[in-house]
């Protein structure tokens, strides 16, 4: 999707091995997010019932680079926060420190893989941590709008993760078909819950007589 969008902007754009040449500059997986294009639309698919997202170009994705504050401490992204706390939960303060120093969410993810709990932990304490970070992330009004724009649709992380996502890649033709999903979609469920909390808060804050769109 990035290559297609880049070619629409510059005919000279092309792949050279595992690098993308765009306007005389080389981009790799590590810095592709810095390509000067609006790529958010390449990272989402939806129909009248479901919104599927993937890649750090979409604000719903946990690797979306957005500084956020949790309990008085700043983190470079929700991925940094979650992985740091996960490592701390298992006594790996050394790994947590490296996670927090990581320049990019992808690097934080690689470092955080040194600590791998079982599925039960992800569905209990891991879910609680991710929910806390997601709430903090979407305190930003600009990101709130992105989340609320999903309305009442089912939110789906379109990756092969069997825990956080639905077990299908973004390019899979069945990604919007719930009968084909094989993963727990924990991230999608957390986003939906935070979205509902935001709606309730905004409805409570709205002046009497004003209706908050759902």
What would you say about this model in short?
With 214 residues, this protein is of the alpha+beta class. The protein has helices at residues 2-9, 78-89, 93-101, 105-112, 119-137, 141-148, 186-205, and strands at 14-16, 19-22, 25-27, 44-46, 50-53, 68-70, 73-75, 154-157. The protein has 7 helices and 8 strands, in the order H-E-E-E-E-E-E-E-H-H-H-H-H-E-H.
Q: How would you characterize this protein structure?
A:
- Helix 2 packs antiparallel against helix 3 (93-101) and helix 3 packs antiparallel against helix 4 (105-112).
- With 214 residues, the protein is of the alpha+beta class.
- The mean pLDDT is 91.
- The strands form three sheets. A three-stranded antiparallel beta sheet has the order 1-2-3.
- The chain is built from seven helices and eight strands; from the N terminus they run H-E-E-E-E-E-E-E-H-H-H-H-H-E-H.
Distance between the termini: 31 Å
Radius of gyration: 18 Å
Which shape, going by the Cα principal axes?
globular
Percent of residues in β-strands: 5-15%
Structural class: alpha+beta
What is the overall number of helices?
Answer: 7
Q: What is the helix fraction of residues, given as a range?
A: 25-40%
Spatial order of the strands forming the largest sheet: 1-2-3
Number of beta strands: 8
Low-pLDDT segments = none
Profile the largest sheet: 3 strands, antiparallel
Give the SSE string. Answer: HEEEEEEEHHHHHEH
What are its keywords?
3-stranded mixed β-sheet; alpha+beta; 214 residues
